[in-house]
Specification:
This protein is an alpha+beta fold and 295 residues long. It has a domain at 8-28 and 88-170: Ku70, Chain: A, Domain 2 (Beta Barrel). It has helices at 78-86, 121-134, 186-199, 212-225, 246-253, 261-271, 287-294, and strands at residues 8-13, 16-24, 48-50, 55-57, 64-69, 72-76, 91-98, 108-116, 137-144, 147-156, 159-165. A hairpin with a 4-residue loop joins strand 3 (48-50) and strand 4. The longest helix is centred in the middle third of the chain and has 14 residues, at 121-134. The protein is extended and about 70 Å long.
């Protein structure tokens, strides 16, 4: 099924303008539940309460307010915010081209497919192919939803994809968390690198991963819907103990393939069972000889 466009915009760089349309690139497959009244099973409604008038109000009767002091707000109507937004002409103004590797993934927020609007197919294709050949992405500004967004445009499949980004002041400083200093030895680093090499795949296949928690929830939902008796199993408590010997843990992760030569030879000799010769069975004697011996 074809995706429906969300909104229109215009990519501009230099004197070139490219009309484009936004499409949702991702979707959440999380399991969502409705809130029900436990006594009767009816779905509850969310309502807005005004403490001044002591009654419920509708969403249409609300305006937005920015707090400037205690119980004091600067107010805006939806039309006023729309006017500020449209002042940016909804343009995607490219300000720079950079290598994608220069942008840390922590800055990425959401993703949208960009498709050409009527009349923009040629320039759209031109920009996508030029960026692909140069191995560049475009940093741009975009005004939407009552705010100015920092975005990145990059080649994707046969066209372009847009990532909204966090501004630098929206990403918390990593130094705000506590990271204890710990010295690591060269041997430990070497073993860790071997483990990384062993788990390295030539390409990333997103189809190889699935949400196992969601599958368990959906399986339980189907069982409950079909009236099956569901017996809850208490999960086994697993205490994650502190790793005392990092070297041993790394060796076990590698399946013992990197044991030190002396230990490997010793363990090999110890593991090899001693071969014992089976005792020879006496050959059967002729009957005449057995009689002579008996007499």
């Amino acid at each position: 099924m074809a995706l429906r466009p969300l909104r229109n915009a215009t990519i501009s760089f230099g004197l070139v303008n490219i009309p484009v349309r936004f499409y949702t690139a991702t979707k959440s497959e999380d399991v969502h539940f409705n809130l029900l009244h436990a006594d009767c099973g009816s779905r509850v409604n969310r309502r807005w309460w005004c403490p001044q008038h002591e009654n419920f109000i509708e969403l249409a009767d609300m305006i937005r307010g920015y707090p400037v002091a205690k119980n004091q707000y600067v107010t805006f109507t939806a039309a006023e915010l729309e006017e500020l937004e449209s002042g940016g002409d909804r343009a995607l103004e490219i300000t720079a081209f950079v290598d994608l590797a220069q942008i840390d993934p922590v800055f990425f927020e959401k993703a949208y497919y960009l498709g050409p609007a009527p009349g923009g197919a040629k320039t759209y294709r031109l920009l996508a192919e030029a960026m692909r050949k140069q191995n560049k992405v475009a940093v741009a500004r975009w005004v939407s939803n009552s705010r100015e967004h920092l975005v990145v445009l990059r080649p994707f499949e046969e066209g372009l994809i847009l990532h909204t980004m966090y501004y630098a002041d929206e990403v918390r400083d990593f130094s705000a968390i506590d990271v204890d200093h710990a010295d690591v030895r060269d041997k430990e680093v070497a073993l860790a690198k071997m483990l990384i090499d062993e788990l390295t795949e030539p390409t990333f296949d997103p189809l190889a991963y699935k949400d196992e928690y969601r599958e368990r929830v959906m399986e339980r939902i189907r069982a409950k819907a079909e009236g099956e008796l569901v017996v809850s199993e208490s999960p086994e408590s697993e205490s994650a103990g502190e790793v005392v010997d990092i070297m041993e843990a790394l060796r076990r992760s590698l399946g013992g393939a990197v044991a030190e030569p002396r230990k490997r030879n010793a363990s090999a000799s110890a593991a090899a069972p001693a071969t014992r010769k089976a005792p020879k069975r006496a050959a059967p004697q002729p009957a005449s000889r057995r009689k002579k011996k008996a007499s």
